[in-house]
Amino acid sequence: MIDQIHGIILKKTPNYAVLETGGVGLKVLSTINTLEAMPAKGKKTLLLTYLHVRDDVLDLYGFQTSRERETFLQLIGISGIGPKLALTILSGISPDKLRNRVIAGDVAAMTAVPGVGAKTAKRIIVELKEKFTKADNDSLGFEELDQTMSGLYWDALNALTALGYKQKHSNQALDKIKQSGELKGELESVIKKALQHLMY
After folding, report:
1. Rounded Cα distance, 128 and 20, in Å
2. Distance CA 174, CA 161 (A)
3. 164-195 CB burial, b ≥16 within 10 A, e <16
4. What is the phi/psi pair of residue 20, to 5°?
5. If one looks up domain 4-63 in CATH, what number appears?
6. CATH level 3 topology of 149-199
7. pLDDT in tens, 19-34
8. Beta carbons of 19 and 47 less than 8 angstroms apart
9. N or C: which end of the chain has fewer CB within 10 A?
């Protein structure tokens, strides 16, 4: 799986950018915030990424900060919210503001975000409120997650998400493997161990 890319910006649009790395031009779907923060065409940039696999389509999503990527992963872990809707949500509201509105249970403010209806807003609040209130106010726990999640962890998480498992449940399974000291070796082996926990 692709965890991050560093390359030259060949093209920027309101919805995506094309980065050249290793002689290959990669289309990276991004939020408005990330695209606006990126340097001009012809300059180099680094994006944290998430590869979404569905049927015969591979979509690569890019984020400027670990906080934005982690919020994106939390959103797509909610039933009914796919990557494109999550991207739309994060284009209409920053991770910090989203957190504040979720904790406040502000359904009205959430529905002001394009693409978010009342049912979706309530689902987001129910799913994320406890996570946000438990997390540290400054870091939201994102820095800690990025430090402890190895590349193998992210690869396994992406693979399990692609198989249809919720990100929340996949995280729990991988955390158990990590705590037992078995988060090592081949990716296939880690995925098999995680599936044992998910099927239990």
Report:
1. 36
2. 12
3. ebbbeebbebbbbbbeeeebeeeeeebbebbe
4. -95, 125
5. 2.40.50.140
6. Helicase, Ruva Protein; domain 3 (1.10.8)
7. 999 899 999 999 998 9
8. yes
9. C
